[in-house]
Structures are given as structure tokens and as C-alpha cells.
Design a protein that fits this description.
Keywords: Transferase
EC number: 2.5.1.18
Protein name: glutathione transferase
CATH architecture of the largest domain: Up-down Bundle
CATH topology of the largest domain: Glutathione S-transferase Yfyf (Class Pi), Chain A, domain 2
Shape: globular
CATH class of the largest domain: Mainly Alpha
Strand content: 5-15%
GO molecular function, one term: glutathione transferase activity
Number of helices: 8
Helix content: 40-55%
Order of helices and strands: EHEHEEHHHHHH
Domain GST C-terminal: 81-202
Length: 202
């Protein structure tokens, strides 16, 4: 087994999709949680000045989506064919866009935040979730008939955005997505991770 170390801040944010994929795949790794006060000193030593980082037997990979695709392949959660892998990537990008839109609100000038938040809550998020609901099957999977990183990305990004005080529509309004979330949460490895992971504010 390779030696794996995963480094991100002590929160969910952009790092949690990868932690949950690792949990689903039963992949053992060192979960390094960096305090923000130490980031400025570490930043110049990283490949692109960003977190998260994945180290595999001494080789460092950065960019959260690249890491996600790599560990999804290693865990057997990337899709069974090139076409399925492309579909998994498509859903992962769509689910990630929900998080990105929410995160952007918090760097806006204070006077603009409320308007942007309302637009996300009332228009953009419901529209995106409706599209994603149509792409998911009635069995609760985006690709094929078993769990993939696409399902994990939807669940984790939805959960993470909700932790940012963004009022997202309930998944009860999107029955296929509700089944996706249920399938993710009941995966044994993921269920254990959700129970045991460190409690963080975001």
C-alpha cells in the first residue's frame, strides 16, 4: 500500500470531497489539518501555493479536482469506462460550482453580500439542483448503478454550502438527489467518517 498524506485546513471547504472519497474507498491516509496561522510559512513550499495537497509515496499533487479524480480512480469510484468517467467529471464540476458560488459571496463587499446571497438561494441553487436532479437516476446514482465520486461530490458540496449559512432548498424537493444523498450517507466507509470526523465550523 502506498504512503498517503492529505493536507488541508482544519475544516471541510474544498478539502472534504476528497476525504469522503478516501473514506468510501477504504483508503488509509494521514489527515493533516493545517492551522491557518501556519499557512503563510508553508505556502511557498507548495507546488502552486494552494491547498489541498495529496502526497503519494513522496510525490505531491495539488488542485482539489485533480486529487479527487486520482483518488476516485484508485478507489474504483471514477466510472467503469472513459465515457462514464467523463460523466462523473461533469457532475463533479457541476456540484463544485454550487460551492464556488457560495464561497464567492464571502469575499464581496459587505453591501453586495445580501443581494448575491438572495440570488443564489432563490434562483441559481434551485436551478442547478433541478438540472442535477434530472441527471440522477431514480435509484440515486448519477452514473451507472453504483456509487461514484459524482454522488459524493453532490452530497458533500450541498452539505458544505449549507454550513455556510446559505439557505438551500431541501433535497426533499428533488427526489433523485435525495436518493443520491441517502446512498452516500449509508455507504459504510462514509457513514463511519461522518460519525468520527473532527467537528468543525465549516
Amino acid at each position: 500500500m502506498p504512503s498517503i498524506k492529505y493536507t488541508y485546513f482544519d475544516g471541510r471547504g474544498l478539502g472534504e470531497v476528497n476525504r469522503v472519497i478516501l473514506a468510501a474507498g477504504g483508503i488509509k491516509y494521514e489527515d493533516v489539518r493545517l492551522h491557518e496561522s501556519k499557512w503563510s510559512g508553508m505556502k511557498p513550499t507548495t507546488p502552486m501555493g494552494e491547498l489541498p495537497l495529496l502526497e503519494v509515496d513522496g510525490t505531491t499533487i495539488c488542485q482539489s479536482n485533480s486529487i479527487a479524480r486520482y483518488i476516485a480512480r484508485e478507489a474504483g469510484l471514477a466510472g467503469k469506462s472513459s465515457l462514464e468517467q467523463a460523466k462523473v467529471d461533469m457532475i463533479m464540476e457541476g456540484a463544485r460550482s454550487l460551492f464556488d458560488k457560495a464561497a464567492q459571496i464571502f469575499i464581496l463587499p459587505e453591501a453586495e453580500k445580501a443581494v448575491r446571497k438572495k440570488k443564489l438561494e432563490e434562483k441559481e441553487a434551485p436551478e442547478l439542483l433541478e438540472y442535477l436532479n434530472k441527471l440522477a437516476s431514480g435509484k440515486g446514482y448519477f452514473v451507472g448503478d453504483q456509487l461514484t465520486a459524482a454522488d459524493i461530490a453532490l452530497y458533500v458540496n450541498y452539505e458544505s454550502v449549507g454550513s455556510l449559512t446559505i439557505a438551500l432548498p431541501s433535497l426533499d424537493k428533488y427526489p433523485n438527489l435525495k436518493k443520491v444523498a441517502d446512498n452516500v450517507k449509508t455507504n459504510p466507509g462514509i457513514a463511519n467518517w461522518l460519525k468520527e470526523r473532527p467537528v468543525t465550523t465549516y
